[in-house]
């Protein structure tokens, strides 16, 4: 993971239900919502299909 001096601040709008789920998950684990979101995005990007291999199914 990047060091704190390489971080950017951004705003993401979550539906209320997802935000509540994130808050609950973070609280249960004594973690921040930010930490959970960063980890989730890192994992998502690792599994993301490369753009060169991505094909839309609709025309």
CA radius of gyration is 15 Å
Q: What portion of the residues fall into strands of 2 or more residues?
A: under 5%
The largest pleated sheet is described as:
none
SSE arrangement, N to C: HH
Q: Could you give a short description of this structure?
A:
The protein is mainly alpha-helical. 49% of the residues lie in helices and 0% in strands. The protein is built from 2 helices and no strands.
SSE order and pairing:
Layout lengths: L15 H14 L3 H15 L12
Helix pairs in contact: 1-2
Key phrases:
about 60 residues, mainly alpha, extended
Protein described:
- It is a single chain.
- It is extended, with a radius of gyration of 15 Å.
- The protein has helices at residues 16-29, 33-47.
- Helix 1 packs across helix 2.
- It is 49% helix and 0% strand.
- The protein has a domain at 15-46.
- The protein has 59 residues and is an all-alpha fold.
């Amino acid at each position: 993971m990047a060091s704190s001096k390489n971080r950017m601040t951004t705003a993401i709008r979550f539906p209320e239900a997802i935000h509540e789920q994130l808050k609950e998950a973070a609280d249960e684990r004594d973690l921040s919502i930010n930490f959970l979101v960063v980890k989730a995005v890192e994992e998502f990007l690792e599994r993301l299909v490369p753009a060169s291999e991505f094909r839309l199914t609709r025309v």
